Amino acid sequence: MQTINKIEILGRIGMEPRISTAGTSQIARFSVATNEVFRDRTGTIKEDTTWHNVAVWQGKTISSFDGLRKGVWVHIVGRIRNAKYKDSQGDDKFFSEVVATQIKVCDPQEAC
After folding, report:
1. What does residue 98 show for φ and ψ, rounded to 5 degrees?
2. Residues 67-77 pLDDT 10s
3. Can you give the pLDDT at residue 24?
4. Does 89 fall in a domain?
5. Scanning 8, 58, 79, 101, which has the fewest C-beta atoms within 10 Å of its C-beta?
6. What's the chain look like in SS3?
7. Which is nearest to 99 in space by CA: 4, 3, 5?
8. Quick one: what percent of the chain has pLDDT higher than 90?
């Protein structure tokens, strides 16, 4: 049986993308905010924001980073990657990020 690791998010870019080079490829890293609106137990409307770390590799499926900037709506399809690194004190640190395989800059007035 095959496993599936797929995520799809639609939200706003929360920071200017940081673009770096790895070999002959470029990587853009940025955060995307998604929101959920709900009523709590008292009936008060609340909004919960979740921030997603995103990594976009330029190459086979993504040709350029044109249009990626803070505040822009994006539709992203990709997979979740969990990683570990050692900080300057030698302690293990863990993080998760969405590795995008598809990305589309959206017009908030139209369906994306």
Report:
1. -90, 120
2. 899 999 999 99
3. 84
4. yes
5. 8
6. CCCCCCEEEEEEECCCCEEEEECCEEEEEEEEEEEEEEECCCCCEEEEEEEEEEEEECCCCCCCCCCCCCCCEEEEEEEEEEEEEECCCCCEEEEEEEEEEEEEEECCCCCC
7. 5
8. 80
Residue 111 lies in a domain: no
Measuring CA to CA, which residue among 59, 56, 37 is closest to residue 46?
A: 37
Residue 35's pLDDT is what? Answer: 95
- Backbone φ and ψ of 108, nearest 5°: -65, -15
Q: Is 96 inside any structural domain?
A: yes
| Count of domains forming the chain | 1
pTM of the model: 0.84
At which residue do the structure tokens 């007035």 appear? Answer: 109
Q: What is the rounded distance in angstroms from the CA atom of residue 45 to the CA atom of residue 62?
A: 38
Kindly list the distances between the CA atom of residue 49 and the CA atoms of 35, 46, 81, in Å, as whole numbers in the listed order.
4, 10, 21
